[in-house]
Amino acid sequence: MCVGLSARVVKLREDGTALVDASGAKREVSAQLLNDLMPGDYVMVHAGAAIAKITQEDEDEAEDVLGALL
């Protein structure tokens, strides 16, 4: 099973990476697949890459599901 995590973009870097915050855990991911990212946007992260831009509602739902599993 593949799992993607939702995260908020904190900072975009010139080298094509982004600093994201996933439930308090900050990490750098590749942002090269998405052209229109801005700090504050939410993304789905899989295998070290931001693969899709998502909405705040998507983020809230993902947090609820993850919280129910833990």
Give an overview in words:
The structure is a single chain. With 70 residues, the protein is of the alpha+beta class. It has one domain (5-69): SH3 type barrels, CATH 2.30.30. Helix content is 20%, strand content 44%. It is built from 1 helix and 5 strands, in the order E-E-E-E-E-H. The chain has one helix at residues 56-69; strands spanning 5-12, 17-22, 25-30, 42-46, 49-54. It has a 5-stranded antiparallel beta sheet, with helices on one face. Strand 4 (42-46) and strand 5 form a beta hairpin. The chain starts with a strand and ends with a helix. The mean pLDDT is 90.
Question: What labels describe this entry?
Answer:
70 residues, alpha+beta, SH3 type barrels, 5-stranded antiparallel sheet, 1 helix, 5 strands, 20% helix
Task: Describe the SSE topology.
Elements: E1 5-12, E2 17-22, E3 25-30, E4 42-46, E5 49-54, H1 56-69
Antiparallel strand pairs: 1-2, 1-4, 2-3, 4-5
What is the gyration radius calculated from CA atoms?
Answer: 11 Å
Number of strands: 5
Q: Which runs of at least 5 residues are low in confidence (pLDDT < 50)?
A: none
What is the ordering of alpha helices and beta strands?
Answer: EEEEEH
Average pLDDT score? 90
Structural class: alpha+beta
Strand order within the widest sheet?
3-2-1-4-5
* Biggest pleated-sheet summary: 5 strands, antiparallel
State the separation between the terminal residues, measured CA to CA: 17 Å
CATH topology group = SH3 type barrels
How many distinct folded domains?
1
By CATH, the architecture is named Roll
Q: Helicity range of the residues?
A: 10-25%
Q: In the CATH hierarchy, what is the class? A: Mainly Beta
Number of helices: 1
- Beta content: 35-45%
Shape: globular
